[in-house]
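Question:
Write out your own:
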Amino acid sequence: MNGDLSKRNHTRQSHIIVNARYALTRAEIDIILTLLTSITKEDKDFKDYKFTISELESKTGRKWNSKQLKSTVKSLMSKPLELPTEHENDWEIVNWFSYFKYSHKGLITCRFDKRLKPYLIEIIGTRILADFRHLLPMKSSYSKRMYLLLKQYDKIGSRTFDVEELQNILKVPNSHKLYSNFKIKVLKRAEADINKFTDLEVKLEERKRARKVIEITFTIRKNTTNLKSFIAMIREYYTNVLLHYTKDKRPIKCSKKGFLYYADEEQSYIDKKEAQKLWEYLHENRENLYVIKKSAIELKKHAFLSSIEFFKEYLKTNFAHKKIVQLKQGDRAVDISIFPNGKLYDMSGESIDYDNIDKIWNILYKLAKQNKLNIFEEE
């Protein structure tokens, strides 16, 4: 039987789903990810997905039987996800699937819950695209969740979490609430898994208050630790621009066809043997590539100004208790700054007109887009 488990390897989710609160086992999250690859952007609504156990085994790369599948599905159906809401007193709890059915012939039928349609088909808010093949090898369900949470910010370059908030998103057990355990069992495991199996390279940093770790930040960048990934990244993003100079000061570029050439002579591709040595040279010096250093600020600016939500996150992370800009409010000047929790305030001690707080945010966002806020200077 050729069932509905497609050969597609990419999943599409709204950031609302990615940031929802839920806890699943590795087997449960693998079933969800497997079915997510069958949803396409052309779909107008959910349908019944039909497939066999052998097709499920082929897709997930693991063995299944009827008893094991039934146990996993029953557990999954008892673990809804709690969607994030705008107001702290609001809540919404939804099941992943409306039903699962199994026949003695080995045919499985299921359907996603219709309440998830805005987040998996229509895609409200930011779309998170992930390659199913990056997630499958991870044995920790927390690593899979952390990858999706960080993938949302891969163009931003970092993501900061309040420790307690992240523990709530992941719904970790009480045994993981102690930070030392949380760090070992979840954070460092995720860091290692993501760097080993995925297209991202991440690094954990901590921020303490007194002796307590209250915030963690993951820096995020393209995983170019192996030569093959590095070459693919250059060919995708940096064609016909200056990459770096050779030891004898010759400028190196990569053509749109993916071949290296010297930019100080009429374009002629470097022979394969010499090109291999140059790729290795560029890879060894990847931290100092001219093109990447030159474009870092513009890439950061583009990413953080892609939405007002990302803009707010950037100010909260980088400008807490620092002057952002001076604005006129009535007949007085207001020095705008921001608390670490994201709330704006006047550094002079006066009260901001909080009835017009959305208007103030829109003014800041507009000024940033007009290059009138010096917030993206090179660090």
